[in-house]
Amino acid sequence: MKKFLLLSILPLIFVSAFSQNWTLKWADEFNGTSIDVANTWNPEVNGDGGGNSELQYYRSENLSKESYEGFSCMVLNAKRESYLGKAFTSARLNTLGKVYFQYGKIESRMKIPSTANGLWPAFWFMGNDYNGSNWPYCGEIDVMECGHSGGITSGTQSSFMGGAMHWGPISPVFIHYMDYTAAAGPYSIQDDFHLFTLIWSADSIKMYLDLDKFPKAAPYYQKRIAADAGNDIYTYFHKPFHILYNLAVGGGGFTGISSADAVTALSTDGTPAKMYIDYIRIYQKGDVNEQFHSNSTFTADTNPPTGITANVGKITQTGVEFILNGVDNSGSVIYMVTYNGITSSTEAISGAQKSFVVTGLMPGTSYNFSVTAKDAAQNTATTGSISLSATTLPNSDCAGISNIASQGSFDSGYSYSFSTSGTNVTINFEMLDNKAGIVAYLWNYSSGFVESPMTNVNGKKFAITLSGKTAGSILKMACKFAYAGGMNVTKQLSYTVGNNCGAAAIETISTSDIRIYPSPASNRLAITSESEIKEIQLKNLLGQAVKVLSVNGLTQTIDISDIPTGNYLIVSKMVNGQSLVNKITKK
After folding, report:
1. Of 113, 317, 364, 422, whose Cβ has the fewest other Cβ atoms within 10 Å?
2. Domain boundary residue, one of 391, 407, 440
3. Confidence (pTM)
4. Domain limits at 349?
5. Which of 554, 558, 549 is nearest to 575 (CA)?
6. 505 in a domain, yes or no?
7. Quick check: bond before 520 cis, omega within 30?
8. What digits encode the pLDDT tens for the residues 114-167?
9. Sorting pLDDT into bands at 50, 70 and 90, what band is 296?
């Protein structure tokens, strides 16, 4: 959070796993009526710009306790208001001298505000020997920083994030060593709660995103800190560190914004942007040289969750919903759903029914699932493992997902949809594999063989319309996806002209005039258009409407919290009579 001298780009990938033999040493779940400033937190009050020419004045009044989606959170509020010569106020706090430790696994579940242009949220650590002037000698570990100018420039603010480390001597010559990585991640981290994890050992420092959802995720940042790691790094990261959170505004060296007029992230009416912190938890293994210090008494939780129930809910072609419930004295329950050696997890409020959808399944396939539960202290529910089975819905004549190839091979597979309007048949294919530079061709076997180029809709989605088709006739088709280094061809598919599977025709997917974000989305979806919208229809991939809203205007926000996880079409009916269709993913 101090200063940034270089930038290297690393991709976010999900490939490796790690051991989880951890014991909970301490946690702040923020379940009380106030923030513990007596024994845990030190709110900072200053307008010194954080050493980065930031534009805010930090005030204790900008800290609050609030409930969000049922979770009790500590909240950092940033807002546009004049205070002691600054155009903005915000919050920053630390645990210096109150909670500090050496080595362990540290988890924090947070909801980061939309950084737009100008906000700089961060979750980080500094050496507990920090005295106000000995940076970077004290050492610094930045687990999450969002709002970088690189994300602003590329238009990927919602997913552009990074981790960093700073260290170096200050006497007799100031030397600042720094290692920083950032990348546009695979999805937005500003849409809902996300889990950020630091794993710090005697050998290395590693940072992870959403290990609860992707337990085999590779670190988005890692650095060796052993004695032979170079640049004197060993000296600075084998001592106790303390915790910091802040929500900065501006900062020329990071956001590229040094003027209040360039900040677009904060409303002119003083409405605050909020950074919600659901919890922070520190785990250790009992390894040699581990340290933990706290001014408050932490009583180990030995009570496991009870009353765990799990039932299968709605089933789709690619997902199975689980209805979960249970009780734990800690206030929340962690549920784990395992199938085919893959485990996904979710955390829910104690005693509250939780809908959790396992996605990425294949249509028409039977699965056996195992559901277990634990709490943050790793106490496993006495219920044991609950076994459930479900069979996903089969593909239909109009739409489906498959990974079967007639040439080459698919990893994740592809999706397809067919619809008839009059004598026209619209054909859509989307490549789900992680490939770049894709072009697509329709292979039509209906009468002889014809190869036709398909139009790129966006991303890896392609469409083509065949005209003059007779109702009841059979089309036989496949799609060839070509890319640098190879090609894959889908299996041959049949479609009966005129069959829309009991739903209205699926309109052609739009390529312009409308923007829908974020995708994947969690609870809310924003839609902006160049033309006035009168109706919004949310359809599944079979063309069946699952939600219809009458609206009015160029910008809309719709609630999709009641929609199961999966892929959907957003059909925007315009006042001018045009229908525009975009595809979104609900997570």
Report:
1. 422
2. 391
3. 0.72
4. 306-391
5. 554
6. no
7. yes
8. 999 999 999 999 999 999 999 999 999 999 999 999 999 988 888 899 999 999
9. confident
